[in-house]
Amino acid sequence: QDSSPPIPPDVIREMLGEEPESAAEEILQHIDPVPLATGSIGQAHLATFRGAEVVVKIRRHEHRREEDQGLGGPRRGARRRA
């Protein structure tokens, strides 16, 4: 991690809306606009998914393309908060 500036909430909404399955509003009931942590590759936010509190990792656009090419496609994931 480093002192990278956080990705603005409106940009995060746009990025989530680009995901192939559906818009952010249909996937998550809530996403906290204030990140838990930020870094050079992305940041993490608390969110609510199907009634459970989860952590959502958001990758910066410049890193999404690089990683997607190396992994054979985009990955999506959320973890329950312990």
Determine the fraction of residues in helical runs and give it as a percent range: 25-40%
**H and E string:** HHEEEEHE
Number of helices: 3
> Averaging pLDDT over every residue, what do you get?
74
Outline the biggest β-sheet: 5 strands, antiparallel
Terminus-to-terminus distance: 21 Å
What is the overall shape?
Answer: globular
Kindly state the number of beta strands.
Answer: 5
- Radius of gyration (CA) equals 12 Å
Low-confidence runs (pLDDT<50, min 5 residues)?
Answer: 66-75
Number of domains: 1
Structure notes:
- The protein has 3 helices and 5 strands, in the order ααββββαβ.
- By secondary structure, the chain is α+β, with helices and mostly antiparallel strands.
- It has one domain (9-80).
- Strands 1, 2, 3, 4 and 5 form a 5-stranded antiparallel beta sheet that branches.
